[in-house]
Amino acid sequence: MEKKRPLILITNDDGYLAKGINSLIDSVKDLGDILVVAPDGPRSGMSSAITSLQPLRAHLLKDTPEFKLYTCTGTPVDCVKLGINELAERKPDIVLSGINHGSNAAVAVLYSGTMGAAMEGAVFKVPSIGFSLLDHSVNADFSATSKYIKLLTKQVLNNGLPNGTCLNVNIPKGNNIEGIKVCRQTSGQWVGEFIKSKDGANKQIYWLTGEFANDEPHDENTDEWALAHNYVSVVSIKVDMTNHKHLEEIKDWEKLV
Amino acid sequence: MEKKRPLILITNDDGYLAKGINSLIDSVKDLGDILVVAPDGPRSGMSSAITSLQPLRAHLLKDTPEFKLYTCTGTPVDCVKLGINELAERKPDIVLSGINHGSNAAVAVLYSGTMGAAMEGAVFKVPSIGFSLLDHSVNADFSATSKYIKLLTKQVLNNGLPNGTCLNVNIPKGNNIEGIKVCRQTSGQWVGEFIKSKDGANKQIYWLTGEFANDEPHDENTDEWALAHNYVSVVSIKVDMTNHKHLEEIKDWEKLV
Known about the structure:
homodimer, 257 residues, nine-stranded mixed beta sheet
């Protein structure tokens, strides 16, 4: 019996028409059969949001033995859930999300729909990777990403990932990439987050904006350091968010009642 | 100079009219000044989603020196960001989120708007707690929760939490609570997630549903075990999602290029 090619489930948060997801598809289409289940429009900043109060719809736009493309009305996580539970003919061997137009390094991993989808793959115990390019523009140049995407996708297909773990891969802008750094999530937060403005009826509105304030700009083990020095950052991300050390410190709170 | 009372920022994901948030306010109003910034309607399952493509609006509905209530058009995380950055007159001493109508134990922490808001407090280095009751009903009975909410809020106000850490507190339904268990996030996933149905035009739709399949039902250190045995579960949650152990295992991937 012929061995089946790997099934690669692909999604993103910028929608199926984005340049990034089409670049991702081009980079990995020779590595396996492709099932795309992607939002029908932009879903940036959706984190791991799920849709429960509205129904979901999926539309099959392309259908060949090696390549299927569904659009979905839901969030990136909805796309992964619908893809694995309902649309895939067999369990995917890997979930790839992106390529996001813009960074998902540091604390952006919390807000990112791209990474929400990758984490959802990890919840299903499917090895998963989220890819992002540090360029927000619609016409971002993804040409330098393909080499790293192929390499990391092959590594994960061959070696797997621990259960409940996915990779957050960010790629610097431009063609002068120094290599890969395996690193940790940078500590920091966004500051100056709102621009105040008025709507058409002269009422107060707030637009989310801001910039990242890095708590540890000189730490070579962080993803922000790697990216600032033109390395591809590879952070291993767990869906188990337990702070085990702190649990020990507060164990005696059980005796308060 | 008289010492100011603690400022308690309160939000939720069920909206400002929900019974749960009003029960939370009642439980802690004697512990400090209250600033509520809550969604103007239901935002369940919003995770750490943020609103960047639409403007945010806030409406001041109640305004006394000890108690202010704003509704917000955004997500739970938007409420925390807007509250801390724009609406609070000083930095909050604690962020409380909930009481959610329904469990946020185990992997639900990833999808929960209640916990998204608590994690956002942790990003701002403000000690934060998300509270949930294991009862989805609109008219859930919150009477047994007050004792535990007061106790844990006082503990955190007095002792703080490590930076980037918040608590995920789930409370069993009913009045026979055995006590508190400090425990870790249970491993598992949701299964049987979709009900297929037809819309008014006879087109295929999918409704998200399903039930939690516990990977470790007999492990006494997990939050699902605590709740199944009628304990309040207290899980310490980190916004740094790095899998440090796995980083070491893949460090040599740096040499692939």
